[in-house]
Predict the 3D structure of the following.
Amino acid sequence: MNSMLERLSREFRVTDIIERNARLTTFTVDRDVAETLIRELRDREGYTHLNFMTAIDYIERGVFTLVYMLHNYATKSTLGVHVNIDRDNAEMTSIHTLWAQAWTYQRELRELWGINFPGSPRIEEDFCLEGWEEIPPMRREFDTVEYCERTFVSRDGRETTDPREHMHEVIFPERGGDN
Amino acid sequence: MIKSLSTETTLENAGLSAEEQDLFSNARPQAYEPYPIKAVEDFANWCRANSLWLLAFGTGCGAIELRPLMTARFDANRIGVAGRPTPRQSSVFIIGGYSSVKTLKRIVRSYEQMQGPKFVISLGICPINGGMYWDSYNTIKRLDQYIPVDLYITGCMPRPEVLVGGLLELKKMIKEGRCDGANRYVENFDWYKANQKKVIKNWNMPDYNW
Amino acid sequence: MPQPPTHSSSLDMSQPEPVDLSSGKYVKLWQGPQHPGITGNMSLELTLCGDEIVECKTHVGYLHRGFEKFMERRTYIQNFTVVCRIAVPEPTFNEYLYSAAIEELAGIEIPERASWLRALNLEMMRLASFLMWTGGMSGAFGLYTVPNWTLTYRDYLLDLFEELTGARIYHMYIVPGGVRNVLPDGWKERTLEILKGTEKLLREVERVMMNNAVFKKRAKGLGIITPDMIDPYGIVGPNARACGVERDLRKDEPYLVYDQLDFEVITGSASDAYERAWVRQQEMYQCIDLIRQMLARCPESGPFQAEMPNVLHWKIPPGETYHKAECTRGEYGYYVVTDGSEYIRRVHVRGPSYTHGIAVMEKLAVGTNIADIAGLMVSLHTYPPEIER
């Protein structure tokens, strides 16, 4: 496993290799070679199972981090491939030719984050949302509470208290501070 | 097909294309009148109460406790409840828990296709005030803004015994003549429709699904 | 022993040609959300030529609540109350995977007794879920007696859950740090009695359903999954084991106490709907056996909750992890990312029905009859809530 990672880091400029636990290792790779790397992992290294494909919105860094989780049934190890793509121009090579299940994940990513995968089948079709007119909802700048107040009508009388504040002010007022 | 000639009583059906306008009725819904003789109306209410046919539509979490309800242990059949596959043959619509906006469109469609007198029971806390999805962008927070609700059963999930209790309460209410959700819907039709159209953005069906 | 599947690049993964709807040969039919032949709340848009399906499109999103978005607004301890609603018919796996992922990132070790109790809860949930599945499977083929039997026995299991955890369906029993309660007095004996009754029931179900001529005729040859479809489509669980592939997370990557238990992976050979039903039937017997083993070996004393920090001020150092478990449908996974604050940064739930319900269903539905499409969907064991969360 280490020799494979060493070879890959030389060939594909892999960075940030972190061993999360005994079975899972994650690393970051550049966007332009990611699809080639994943294909190599599938065909030559035995990582034939795509667990899932998802995205994390790191708005503070201005990137979406796409995560591809690949699993090797023979060695029972899992690799998490991170690919950083630009938030404002979110586009990535499609992997629908590598796994027959991948086009569903790509549909979901386009709808909920706005990441486009040119060439992926039925990418324009609605997946979970119908008639959605706002920005893709999983983006961090989308404020769900404000959207709910604007669109839906709530019943009066609902009060929400922060549990910590309630503890400090009402239940244990004499304690004070962070404990 | 009911087609009305006067313009005050027709619906716009703006969501339909020009070819589809001819396929759907544009008449407004009508309220049903109670029978003029009280004894006949009481008898009709008694019949309606003892023959509650549910619509088989598991809209959300609540559907998980509808299956045990029909088995021998809780046995909803003994109080006259049977599941029907189509809205045309059912009189009770049980909304099981939360409704996403996509499901709400189908709920409205199925509800309007049911024939009056019809009753709605909502299960769980999510249709009351949003429940734990109070800040979710895709669920509605108050069901009675969109369709009239006759009975609320709270809990997460309500047990089948509570469901049976709720159905018995509904029967009592029907026999007393207090369940007029369908008429309320017709009388406040424009208000309900405006609320529905505010959340359901892709309105590609007629304004009233006869 | 059948060979594990190799990744075959000869599998045709192209999308089918769209049919010409104006030719008058085809009819579009929605096996829509309001339909008694649908498991849960999703819909199939079918294009038929006569009685045969030529195209099937799955539409999901009726149960989309935006879990992953609002979980980012809640602290770690607030989230465990909401995760069980993600997969409505089988909620316990969500609680376990969420707690296990959080504990791994926070570096908390749970006591041994808690592991046993967690595994016991998970196996009982598997049995209850399989019983409901059996009801659905036989109901889809017209055998309406079997659901009434299996749902009754599932109800006895739900009674046991209620005694243990306080609720029938959403237990919230497995919490970060351990479990909430120990086994009440007499619970073990009651469980063993109910398991005896469930075994007898399963033998009856075998006679009535699995040996039924009509069920055999309709389910054999329905929805055949070939071994070269397994990796490209990500087919897991009993659907894959029915093809002869020996993959079970409880054996391959043991979690909790499964490395101390004695069981074998059940595989079939024919990989049609009948074989999938047979594999699940055998797994139910296996569940009962595992529960008995756990009840015999579970420690009677000891702590059942680890020392936890103040959960209202709980900050977990940045990291990420992917935890998986074997639920009734296959590999269920939670991918959790933390960033050092009090709120969780990202949770992604990998439900097995995501692939089974959409890509696999659309491929297998082509060529089946209208009457068998509900049976096909139930034999793949799709639960819509975990597809769109």
